[in-house]
Design goal:
With about 375 residues, the chain is mostly helical. It contains 14 helices and no strands. It has a single domain, classed as Cytochrome c oxidase-like, subunit I domain (Cytochrome C Oxidase, Chain A).
């Protein structure tokens, strides 16, 4: 076997670094631009589109790549992507992030800003092709996110609002789905493995109903859809997913931060669903995009930092335990997410101040992750294993 550097030995190492980096940089730059204290050199795209697109597809894309390519190697009992193959995927992600700042016309920009997900999908296809149990689940999800990204970026570049909105809704809905799908697999397993005597027995119907309702929300429902239909779907999703999380026994993990952080993230996603219902009737909740920020900043951000921490320790041969710095990072990201959602709704007079504080807390949390885990992610495993 050809020797590769630890950083390129498995996907979670570089992509968790990239995910934390963009999470630390993007919100702060956006806030300073939004408040007129910084001018982002974006020749073609709108700064608001850049911020949203990067958090939906840049940050989340790095998380998905880091996790799913690592997991797929375990599912298939095969060697993970590493070396040159992994480097190509990394470069495609970086090129996308840089493309927004290049003075290109729409055609070339559209190509450059849509390199990463097609390559990721093809790599996952090669890995899962002979494994139908995973192939028929994760490949369609990733393909849907890829198509959503294409529509979202095309709609923005060519001023087609319906494309931009529909693409975002599909991608965000499928990101919500994949997080809840994976959570349903790993959280009960982690809990049973970590806590002696805990039994988690779920009725067979709970996962299909909760996930089917969530998947239904990934469709871009037209504005003419009745409130009754939307509220009905959301109500099923809320009841089923809250019930499912209760059955995971979250309170049993209260003294284990690296487990409990995952429950907090899932609770934020359930709160996002509740905010979507409220937003149907409350313009303040709707126009502040409280639900979207609760999902991405709260749900994906908090679940993301929990998974990144756990995988970075466990898959490098270290003890899976949170130190003080990691706990501070958790608290910082949770607090920043709550501020970003609640202040614009209930304390709009302090909106500007809250943007500074919320973005800085989110940034501090992910900077702490980089400070604490960068050395781990670029170093060989202490047990001598390759990956």
């Amino acid at each position: 076997m050809k020797k590769v550097s630890p950083l390129l030995s498995i996907s979670f190492r570089p992509f968790f670094i990239l995910a934390a980096s963009i999470a630390a940089i993007n919100p702060v730059l956006w806030v300073f631009n939004y408040l007129g204290q910084l001018s982002l050199p974006l020749p073609v795209v709108d700064p608001l589109f850049w911020h949203a697109h990067e958090m939906i597809f840049g940050f989340t894309g790095a998380l998905i790549a880091g996790f799913i390519l690592t997991a797929s190697a375990n599912w298939t009992n095969s060697e993970p992507y590493q070396g040159k193959a992994l480097l190509i995927l990394i470069l495609s992600w970086i090129i996308e992030r840089c493309s927004y700042f290049l003075p290109l016309n729409e055609k070339y920009l559209f190509v450059l800003m849509n390199l990463f997900f097609p390559i990721l999908w093809f790599m996952l296809l090669r890995k899962l092709w002979r494994f139908p149990k995973q192939k028929y689940v994760f490949l369609p999800i990733l393909l849907g996110i890829t198509i959503g990204k294409l529509f979202h970026s095309y709609g923005s570049l060519y001023s087609i609002d319906s494309f931009e909105f529909s693409g975002r809704e599909v991608a965000v809905g499928l990101i919500r789905f994949i997080v809840l799908l994976i959570a349903g697999r790993v959280i009960p397993f982690f809990t049973i493995k970590k806590i002696k005597g805990v039994k988690i027995d779920l009725p067979r119907w709970i996962n299909p109903i909760s996930l089917l309702a969530i998947l239904t929300l990934a469709f871009p429902w037209p504005e003419s859809t009745s409130k009754f239909v939307l509220v009905s779907i959301l109500s099923v999703a809320i009841i089923a997913n809250i019930s499912r999380q209760i059955m995971w026994k979250p309170l049993s993990t209260l003294k284990i931060p690296i487990l409990f952080i995952l429950h907090i993230g899932i609770a934020f996603i359930n709160l996002e669903l509740i905010l979507k219902v409220i937003g149907i009737f409350d313009d303040q909740v709707h126009y502040t995009q409280a639900a979207l920020h609760m999902l991405l900043a709260g749900g994906v951000g908090v679940v993301g930092i929990g998974i990144m921490t756990r995988v970075s320790l466990g898959h490098t041969g270290r003890v899976i335990m949170t130190d003080l710095w990691t706990k501070i990072a958790f608290i910082s990201i949770i607090s920043g997410s709550i501020l970003r959602v609640l202040v614009p709704i209930y304390y709009s007079d302090y909106f500007v101040q809250s943007l500074y504080i919320a973005s800085c807390m989110w940034t501090i949390g992910f900077l702490i992750f980089l400070f604490r885990y960068f050395g781990i992610l670029i170093s060989p495993r202490p047990d001598g294993k390759i990956y």
